[in-house]
Design a protein that fits this description.
The complex is a heterodimer of chains A (about 80) and B (about 110). Chain A has about 80 residues and is an all-alpha fold. Chain A has one domain. Chain A contains 2 helices and no strands. By secondary structure, chain B is mainly alpha-helical. Helix content of chain B is about 80%, strand content about 0%. The mean pLDDT of chain B is about 85. The chains are: A mainly alpha (about 80), B mainly alpha (about 110). At the A-B interface, helix 1 and helix 2 of A face helix 1, helix 2 and helix 3 of B. Chain A: Pfam families: DUF543. Chain A: It is found in: Mitochondrion inner membrane. Chain A: Component of the mitochondrial contact site and cristae organizing system (MICOS) complex.
Chain lengths: ~80, ~110
């Protein structure tokens, strides 16, 4: 696998994941809207928004790795 | 008894909603980017047989769907190809414009003769 293709692969993963998360959020929003909220629109919008947000976060994590810094709390004894 | 019925209804609704969320979680729809991409691939692979089964169940005569080659579809590849095509077209555009102008001028001169 060529290293210059890595960015393209990350974009592909990001777009695929966005589609999946949007679909899942939409689906769960519809389920909750029908079951609990008397078929109002806002749970569907909320679910889609949450899905897009999760996808954005995953994409950000993917693009920033392996340079993403994780803080670690080291106890000095 | 109304209260009991309402509680029972709430329990049923809660179970359905909880089951939906659990199924989504179990299928990897709520996980990392890699899991989501794999879930999409699985769904794409499962789509043509499902459509086939559904159409045969409903009884519609559907000519074999054009084999959807989109399992290996790569948006980044398509984008890069598009950019290359546009840029190469732009790079030959001035030359082509000159050629067409010369031809057009010759055509007009021939008409006027």
């Amino acid at each position: 696998m060529a290293s210059e293709g890595e960015l393209g692969r990350k974009w592909d993963r990001c777009l695929a994941d966005s589609a999946v998360k949007l679909g899942a959020g939409l689906g769960l929003g519809i389920v909750f809207s029908v079951i609990f909220f008397k078929r109002k629109t806002w749970p569907i919008t909320f679910g889609s928004g949450m899905g897009l947000g999760m996808a954005y976060s995953n994409c950000q994590h993917d693009f920033q790795s392996p340079y993403l810094l994780h803080g670690k709390y080291v106890k000095v004894s | 008894t109304v209260g009991a019925f309402d509680s029972f209804r709430f329990v049923i609704k809660g179970s359905l909603a909880g089951a939906a969320v659990y199924v989504a979680y179990d299928q990897g729809l709520l996980g990392s980017g890699t899991q989501g991409a794999e879930a999409l691939k699985k769904a794409q692979a499962a789509l043509p047989p499902a459509i086939q089964e559904w159409t045969s169940y409903v009884g519609w005569q559907v000519r074999t769907l054009p084999a959807t080659p989109k399992f290996d579809f790569s948006p980044s590849d398509s984008w890069n190809k598009g950019v290359l095509t546009v840029m190469s077209a732009l790079s030959v555009a001035p030359t082509r414009a000159c050629e067409y102008t010369v031809e057009g001028w010759k055509y007009v001169k021939d008409l006027v003769k």
